Amino acid sequence: MLTVSPSPHDHSGESVSKLMFGVIIAMIPAFIVSLVYYGIGALIITVSAMLSCAAFEYLIQRFILKKPASLKDGSALVTGMLLAFCLPTNFPVWLVVLGSLVAIGIGKMSFGGLGNNPFNPALVGRVFLFVSFPVRMTMYPEPLQYWFRYTDAITGSTPLSIIKEGIRNGETLPDIMVKIPDYIDLFLGKIGGSSGEIAAFALLIGLIFMLARKIITIHIPLSIILTVTVFTGFLWISDPIKYADPLFHLLSGGLLLGAIFMATDYVTSPMTPKGMWIYGIGIGIITVLIRVFGAYPEGVQFAILMMNAFVPLINKYVKPHRFGEKLSNA
Amino acid sequence: MYKTFHKGGIHPAENKLTARKGIIDLPVPVLVTIPVIQHIGTPAKVIVKKGDKVKTGQLIGQGEGFVSSNIHSSVTGIVSRIDKVIDTSGYNRPAIEIETSEDEWIDNIDLNQELIREINISRPEIVKKIQEAGIVGMGGATFPTHVKMALPRGKIIEHLLVNGAECEPYLTSDHVLMLEKGEEILTGVTIAMQALDVRKAIIGIEKNKTDAIWHLMKLAQDYEGISIQGLKVKYPQGSEKQLVKSIIKREVPSGGLPSDVGAVVFNVSTMFAIYEAVQKNKPLIERIITVSGRSLNNPSNFRARIGTHISDLIKAAGGLPEKTGKIIGGGPMMGKALNSLDVPVTKGTSGLLILEEKESSRKPVMNCIRCSKCVSVCPMGLEPYLLMTLAERRMCEFIEDCHIGDCMECGSCSYICPANRPLLDYIRLGKVRLRELKRKQKEE
Questions:
Q1: Which value does ipTM take for this structure?
Q2: CA of A114, closest CA in chain B: separation in Å?
Q3: Across the interface, do B375 and A12 touch by the CB < 8 Å criterion?
């Protein structure tokens, strides 16, 4: 029996699961850093988020959608790991499970599963938890203190919340900066924060890995980072007493985690390089607006969700440059 | 300095198994089936009837209309049947079946292998000879060469570009021809330059054929106006528009032809056919065919008569392997899957590819994850995922605005898709649906 099918008869061997597991591998350096600084708590929330996301995806597909399960594609595991990355490591397991249910159930499966969701599912879960349990979500354990203690760890603040608090109390920036870790600690991750966002260098290793394996392109991370640098740099030059410098903004909070792993989610980001630039610049601007002028100390997650909403519009109006296009119009 | 085009493109595994194998003459088979349409355009008119005795090189199909091509008998023998058969293009076409006897060529063909460089006929005569010999584009497009040479009025051609890119995986027929018939190809190029009144010819060859690049570079020193351009390996560089962009950095406008930017493109095999037609009076009755595949015992490059059944070629390459899943006329990217072994090879058949069962089936289709890889590899700058969705949902009125007509069906999108989506299948469907819609609109 001969198979007859239209061309092409060759395939790259690329697959959704390969890409998704590539993303998971890229997140491992950040996970290791989190284990080193926060110990057992990081392990507990990461494992529970990944397991519960996978379980909810399976259950919803099996019993509600009545379709064959698609767990093999690995996307639920990526969502779980990302969700855990933006939670404090002393977060109770039952809340992690609840967040996973919202992420997978509302964020992803309600739209028809992988490929159809307009918003990044992990961020939907994260924002749900943040809005519903604001106090629990902003109590971060101190790094390098309690490897074997989990929810009872003593908590501290993130550099971004220290600055927000200080500015609100009328302190000047040089006074506040004394209270926060220096840039080397920021780069290495010795700061308070969510489990996966703390170490800039580990996230950058992940970025380099994903670029080398062609899992993502540089457009989105670069455009976000450049926009934040330019915007905060402009503010900083205008009034260094009131505004933090660009390097601080880049290294603190969830900016790199968002720019490298969240904003680059295939499903919820634009299809063309030009579109990706617009999307990235939008995320950068909204992030800085929330951080500097808004009520919350951190704004990356909201910025990405907001720009997610613009993606269909961007895809509709921003088209790739066609071969031979210019000349035909001339 | 190796050049290439910059928009899109992919790097499939090259698999040039037969790159170091010389050309083997395939013995004349006992039966050939010669389709009367092996080219783009009107079928040739059959001028023989059942029972006629024909000689090798004799005209058996007369080209009719402007875009058409002559068909010659590739063997000596008796016409046993005139009927419709499926050829390597996959279409059912009228063909002449000939039972062969001892090979006897018609008188005026010069069978001497000696190189004749001197060209002593005039421009119109060259084109006439090319037309008589039934030469068509041998890279696969099979557009009649004499029609291509009759350029539209007002178009000035500065560059004659010769396609030696052979970007399809597995295929090496052009490669070995360049190695073995370099002088003949260069003489063919000189003839084409005269016919088109062009001063400059550039042969583009991909870097995976450095031996051919060096060989032709050395030979080209003796030929005025011909140069060799090395190209980086990238699919689909052998496509006309991409080749023009790679070599002379000009972009053929959407919907246009290379002549719009002062270029005309021919395949190296076509150049060899032109040499044989003009210098040796030999019509196009045989060509080089790569028979390849990982499971084949003896993948080879054959010189075979047009109309040879693929079963004869496969037998010569070591026989059909047990676990064969697919037989493809052409390369793996743009070739057509065949459904039988009795299919004859035509002027456009540059290769035969035998795939194993495990290489033949497609993987299950998943949801589009919007990774935008199809957009980034499309050499024409289209959005394959969108074209597929529009075709699937029958939204034909939008599909034209998305420039579906620019798609040359290179298959890069389907090749790269991690969700195994049949993007190109649906783009083809979209083209058909758009044509239907236009016809309906016309009728109203």
A1: 0.89
A2: 7
A3: no
